[in-house]
Write a structure and sequence with these properties.
Layout (H helix, E strand, L loop, with lengths): L7 H4 L4 H26 E2 L2 E2 L1 H5 L2 H24 L7 H28 L3 H8 L2 H9 L2 H12 L12 H27 L6 H9 L22 H14 L1 H5 L3 H13 L2 H13 L4 E4 L15 E4 L3 E12 L6 E7 L11 E7 L7 E5 L5 E7 L9 E12 L13 H9 L2 H26 L1 E2 L2 E2 L4 H28 L5 H25 L2 H4 L4 H9 L9 H17 L3
Parallel strand pairs: 3-6
Antiparallel strand pairs: 1-2, 4-5, 5-10, 6-7, 8-9, 9-10, 11-12
């Protein structure tokens, strides 16, 4: 499908090469900023946390600059596989032009603090490439792309997936449309459990085994990783419903990665096949009331006995804890708080499945585990629980790695979370796709001032930017999946999570706005998308913690070696 033709003057003003050069100039400015922060925050050849915290705003802005430039760079790379007059080219250039202006704005807010000369930014901003970017993102240019969307000439850009992966996507797309979507609104409005109808159908499709090796009954090749399939499946499930389907494979994926990283062969044989088949559903319990994203500060007490461990303490935000038969939990097996993360171990807790918003499980030995769901704005269906452990007994063979796993729980947790961030990015993309589709349909049907809503320039501009953002997030996540399968891409996984989750908040807001008053009504799906999107920047690494403690810190450390 060819993009709308533009004037020769405009067409000659912009190219993929000039867009790439413009992004590189921004990257160079970001690199200067990172080196400056390295210099001012280093004491005795080590980064000083207190000094870094004095530059949180600058670090935060540079982290987002890096994520945004990366998204645009991967979008441009993807578009090179299409013809110069294609929609793929046009939307990649639009996104790059918008990114330039966004990143330039961020740099201006911190340039004096991070050693980037304002004159340097002015020179870049007045360059021919920058002028071409401003022209490319002008209202007339963007609205022409939006009119192509309104006229049905383009709705979803070519995925770039191979035949096998495209078949997987289509299969789960049908599942989302036929099984999940018809139930999604009722689950959300009435805060119901995910019905067995969805869980059983997902299990039959192999949904829970996407990240588990074939030798354990999963779909993952035994010798290689296939993160891309996980991303494709997650996106389509999330398009159906974030709360009722989009997170179904997240918890078994985290549990599987942790077991594969540290579990004994017996433990892997005992639990992975059950997780892969959906016979056993699981939850992940890491967060505590006073720790949040600071995993190393976990204080849940695990006391050794002759035959196992006694757990005492509380956890919070344990999603799907009621319905799950297995809870993967982090606890402190060494009371010496100075050990930090080295005093933590991971446990596998088996329990009966419970429906509803609260439960209580009492052991014959006298221990008790109780849970109560937390009322939330969105992300309903799975329910997130506060958990309370009172002298709860766990046998020795339920300690991941058994004796060899004592003190290694933090590392198993990080191994489990390694795919969580990119999967959350895919969830954001699926949610955005659903919101975009509703916005396109409604804007065609709704008439305002005797015109269809999608005939107005502002609506067309919104639709064009929505599609460019969705495609950027999708191709960014695909690229990172390929990196992860090569044993690389940990930083990029954090970047795509940071970028995509923030993008989902903006895009679902725009979809809601296009619906006007109907968008604010609960009967409209876009209201659900809007409140669901808000959780994405919070879980799997809160935005601020991810930007400051993970992304910025690592970027600054790398700058110190450059």
């Amino acid at each position: 499908m060819q993009a709308t033709k533009i004037t020769e003057q405009n067409a000659a003003s912009l190219s993929l090469e000039s867009a790439e050069e413009l992004l590189k100039s921004l990257q160079e400015c970001v690199a200067i900023g990172l080196r400056t922060l390295k210099t001012v925050c280093t004491v005795e050849k080590k980064l000083d946390t207190k000094l870094l915290d004095e530059h949180q705003f600058a670090s935060y802005q540079l982290a987002f600059c890096t994520a945004e430039v990366a998204a645009a760079t991967y979008f441009l790379e993807y578009s090179k596989g299409s013809s110069a007059d294609s929609h793929e080219h046009a939307f990649a250039l639009l996104f790059s032009s918008d990114t330039f202006q966004t990143v330039m704005g961020r740099l201006k807010t911190v340039c004096l603090e991070v050693g980037v000369e304002l004159e340097t930014l002015t020179v870049i901003e007045n360059s021919p490439n920058a002028k071409a970017a401003f022209l490319n993102s002008g209202p007339n240019m963007v609205s022409m792309l939006g009119s192509d969307i309104a006229e049905g000439k383009v709705g979803r850009l070519h995925s770039g997936l191979g035949e096998e992966k495209e078949l997987v996507r289509e299969t789960f797309s049908r599942f989302a449309d036929e099984i999940v979507a018809p139930l999604a609104e009722e689950i959300h409005r009435e805060d119901k459990d995910i019905p067995e109808q969805i869980i059983k159908a997902a299990a039959e499709l192999g949904c829970f085994g996407t990240c588990i090796p074939e030798k354990f009954g999963g779909l993952q090749p035994d010798e290689t990783s296939d993160s891309l399939s996980m991303i494709v499946v997650t996106e389509e499930l999330s398009r159906g419903s974030l709360g009722a389907a989009g997170s179904l494979i997240t918890r078994p994926e985290i549990a599987a990665r942790a077991l594969l990283a540290g579990g004994t062969e017996k433990q892997q044989q005992a639990w992975l096949p059950k997780l892969a088949s959906g016979e056993m559903l699981c939850a992940i319990s890491i967060t505590e009331p006073n720790t949040g994203s600071d995993v190393a500060a976990v204080s849940m007490k695990a006391t050794a006995t002759e035959k196992g461990w006694i757990l005492n303490g509380s956890k919070t935000w344990c999603t799907f804890a009621g319905r799950s038969e297995l809870i993967v939990m982090l606890a402190r097996t060494n009371s010496d708080s100075s050990l930090g993360h080295r005093g933590l171990s991971m446990f596998l807790i088996e329990k009966p499945a419970f429906s509803g918003h609260q439960f209580e499980h009492c052991q014959i030995e006298g221990g008790k585990l109780s849970g109560k769901s937390i009322s939330t704005l969105g992300y309903r269906g799975m329910h997130s629980f506060d958990l309370f452990f009172e002298d709860y007994f766990v046998p020795n063979d339920h300690l991941v790695g058994e004796t060899e796993g004592i003190g290694k729980g933090f590392y198993f947790t990080m191994a489990g979370f390694s795919g969580g961030r990119i999967q959350t990015a895919a969830r954001a993309t699926g949610l955005m796709q659903a919101a975009f589709e509703k916005a396109v349909t409604y804007s065609a049907e709704r008439r305002v001032f005797e015109k269809a809503l999608n005939d107005f320039q502002l609506t067309q501009i919104k639709l064009a930017r929505m599609l460019s953002t969705i495609t950027a997030c999708r191709q960014f996540s695909y690229a990172v999946a390929n990196l992860l399968d090569k044993g690389e891409g940990q930083m990029e996984a954090s970047l795509v999570k940071l970028f995509s989750c923030r993008a989902a908040e903006w895009l679902t807001r725009e979809a809601m706005q296009i619906h006007g008053g109907m968008g604010y009504a609960e009967e409209s799906a876009v209201s659900r998308y809007f409140v669901d999107a808000r959780v994405l920047s919070i879980f799997e690494g809160a935005e601020e913690v991810l930007a400051l403690k993970v992304i910025a810190r690592e970027l600054i450390e790398k700058a110190s070696r450059s």
